Predict the structure.
Amino acid sequence: MNLITRSYNTAPSRRRARARHLAAALLLAACSGSTEETETAASATDGDESTGTSDASSDASAGSSTSSGDETATSSTSETTGEPTEDAAITYHRDVRPVLAQRCLQCHADGKIAPFPLTTYDEVFELRELVALTVLNRQMPPWLAAPDCNNYEGDPTLPQETIDMIEAWVADGAPEGDPGDFVEPPAPPSEELPRVDVELTIPEPYTPQGTTDDYRCFILDWPEQGDAYVTGFRAVPGAIEEVHHAIAFAIPPSKLPEYEALDAASPGSGYECFGGPGGEINDPEDAGIWLGVWVPGAAPALYPEGTGLRIEPGSKVVLQLHYNIPPGGAVPDTSTVQFRIEPTVAREAFMMLWADIAWLQGDMQIPAGAPSTTHVWEFDPTSIMSFLTDIIPSNVPIELHSAAHHMHTLGVRGQHSIRRAVGDDTCLLDIPRWDFNWQGSFKFSQPITFYPTDRLRLECEYDNSGGAGDVNWGDGTSDEMCLGVYYVTEVE
Ligand code: HEC
């Protein structure tokens, strides 16, 4: 795509261009980059602690202090087995299993996305060191947002007490305990939409191609005859072990022929779409409306009450699927995408894409060999709002409901905040350890108001120490991006 190098001549079109560039940026960003494993930050622990020789009394104190106040680990230190020293020992069935049931098994079970199950004592025992390590360094459950910045719906972050408890359990030799001690924890958040109004399935089974990754787009008919507002979205992968993420775009009727041509020119079902919903389409305006991203194990995207993203009648949905081909080889997939819709909403929402226009024009250098390069941008989006969208005027307060961060594989850290004209700054999203494979959208527990003259600040850090060449903005696997994506409405 040559979106980045397009030049604009007149002032008004420059303004439009900004909006278009921002729109383009997301599309380019949507699913590009390689899925090369990000390095595990394992340095914090050096743990061959299972061979440690902690005595019963220190175990007991670890057990009793760690299980209190933890919503996921059941505390039942009162039960005795006749052996006073075992009284408070941490066991699999009583302490660890409820945590895994609530925070791990939606992925670590047969037929789910994770590469191995953690459903039985033997399975967990076998991997206990790795389990302790990944919870300790907060690699699992996958959730990129740091805890001390903002509050999010569906945040699966384990409390520190639970992490300490799992570590102590492993250090104590990972005892099984009594199956009768297991107490079923509250269910994890449902992966289902509360209501499904539209369900679209890819036209025929598709077997991913290549050896590692395949990015494929499918055009699906949008059946609604009138205006419809999408208020919730979810992908239902056919072959769950190979669908790593899904993004849905709504394409308005005027833009459809270009997409249909892409589909027609490509043999088999769908077409390749590495950067966005369409390979060679040059006008970012053609790219449609970004409806949502789905990642495995996550709750569905449910937009805030009374808000939604409008889809014009006659539109179609482009579903982009990122297939991560399993070691055993690709299998045919028949994925489905589900929507909850409403005929009207109180407030129409808009997906705002945020990046410095200068970056898109080539001013985002990440020099070869540099271990740390940081790019920062801050600006007031309300001052240009009417250029970004038709639905919100400029210079009025807006509400931000969610934030998503996007970089490719050199990205190591990202931060989003509001620099207040009056009062303390507001942290929106802090990603201390970026992982391309687990990007998602973070829905704020409470909408955050942004006032005209505040500034929306975006920061991205990269590590190009191993790189042979300089890197800049672009949609290829060897290019980089720094993008914020926000679900925005007017203030109620
Ligand atoms: C949203 C799905 C999901 C959830 C929830 C999840 N995992 Fe994982 N886990 C994965 C996937 C997928 C992998 C494979 C590596 C990757 O893609 O990051 C993985 C890898 C792992 C690994 C191997 C890491 C490595 O470096 O090889 C361990 C251990 C693990 N998970 C433990 C857990 C534990 C313990 C929990 C709960 C506290 C948990 N996971 C929750 C999806 C999940």
Q: What stands out?
A: The chain has three domains: 49-181, 191-344, 351-490. The radius of gyration is 24 Å. The pocket of heme C is lined by residues 40, 100, 103-104, 106-108, 113-115, 127, 130-131, 134-135, 140-142, 296-297, 437 (CB under 6 Å).
